[in-house]
């Protein structure tokens, strides 16, 4: 089993902040719309504060550069950050010009009252097919699947916009179901997952997490064990250390990378993002398809996608929070989870009784192996450091087409 030095853990817990206040960070390099890199890192902040026991925080991180937070675009200017064409090229994903399904669900806490309008703005900006309530592509429901919605929350609204935009970028032909739960309590978020599955989603993204607890195996049984459905969960944004529900044995835990433009044939290179979560679960058993020896129980993560806010993604959200709205650049493993959920959906409906978390382990060669970078210090080192084959922060790697995510 691995150990995290107590001072390192303390620093990371403090970095999460208290309450709902913003926490400033300084990591990575911003990739602009034309791929130009900024000369130095920008500050950024977590959208959600540290959660109380039994609750989860969203994993969205907003970049604080002026270029990334402009409320309006200059004529003919593109938003800062990676757009759908970049995501599709980086991960060899098909595009599409019409909505054909299947349905990807997003589970988040509280209501984003402008979700449909903001989604329309994002998709229009990038020429994606319209995804609206009217054409049957976009559906928003409350925790139990009805039109009764929870209270508005501006920080979670930004998380919701990030999630919806990343599904649009990775699978523009997918339908989208947004389930808004009554609060960020794990029980409510888990009930939202059950609702998403009941309403027909083939993949369900969860961009949130909190501290592990002895209740986690019970949460597994009640909320996250859904054979035949891909359940993805972001691994966390505080570096080395396990979080739940990423630690659930039944989900695909999605780590994070720094995605940088390159002259290579792929057009991009990736390294471990220093904030990506990884580690050994204290409670969840290791699933049969996971064969690494550094953790006697479940190891986080399984796969990864872009998460560094300084090589982040363009997002549109009109709900002002901390004085910012409009076009912004986001990162965090909140971006990675809906991307991977969308890849699962595009790869085809999982067979009944299957566990999609196992699929990448059957096709490790069909992923981009991330072999450099670190999110901290651990023993053995692979739990926190990128290397050939499996590592904690990025799992088996990032999507390279659909093969690794098809059952």
The beta-strand count equals 19
Residues in β-strands, percent: 15-25%
Give the biggest beta sheet.
8 strands, mixed
Indicate the structural class: alpha/beta
Overview of this protein structure:
It is built from 8 helices and 19 strands. The chain is α/β, with parallel strands linked by helices and about 400 residues long. The chain has a single domain, classed as Rossmann fold, CATH 3.40.50.200. The strands form 5 sheets. Strands 5, 6, 7, 8, 10, 11, 12 and 15 form an 8-stranded mixed β-sheet that branches. Strand 6, helix 4 (about 155-170) and strand 7 form a beta-alpha-beta unit. Helix 3 runs parallel beside helix 4 (about 155-170) and helix 4 packs parallel to helix 7. The protein starts with 5 loop residues before the first helix and ends in an 8-residue tail after the last strand.
Keywords:
single chain, 407 residues, alpha/beta, Rossmann fold, eight-stranded mixed sheet, five-stranded antiparallel sheet, 8 helices, 19 strands, 23% strand
A few lines on this structure:
The chain is an alpha/beta fold. Helix content is 21%, strand content 23%.
